[in-house]
Design brief:
Blueprint: E1 9-13, E2 19-24, H1 25-34, E3 38-43, E4 50-54, H2 56-73, E5 79-84, H3 90-105, E6 109-115, H4 124-137, E7 142-151, E8 154-161
Amino acid sequence: MNEEIVSEQVRVIDIDGKQLGIMLINDALEIAEERGQDLVEIAPQAAPPVCKIIDYGKFKYEQQKREKLQKKNQAVSILKEIRLHPNTDVHDFEFKARHAMNFLEDGNKVKISVMFKGRQMAYKEQGEELLARFVEKVEDISKIESPLKMEGRNMNLILVPLKSKGKKKN
């Protein structure tokens, strides 16, 4: 910006986007000063570098506004976890499945974990059956993002909602 530009010659662009041509840095700074604006280097890698005559404060403000708007409109997906055990009872299973459905309807990802303790590791097929039942229960509103995998003593599966509706309005 202004005196910080190190090139001797620059391509100058007006506020309206019209090219004023290639000129010496001193001439470009003079024109910007006459108009009460700043000379800002837009493309330093170009040969010669491209500079624009603009109000730098207003430019930074509008740039921050655009970034804020992009951040606001960005979809945030949260990973919720449901933990089960190989011998989880039917009522507990239904309860946790309902919670998973609510999470999926809110647009969140759901990680279902079957945790094995001690000798339960010998019955991995019970965990696989439990996860298969769980997937079957929520298959109308979700799909599998990452397939079944073992991580230590946990068997995991990640589900994502079919349509990302975003968060529910209360």
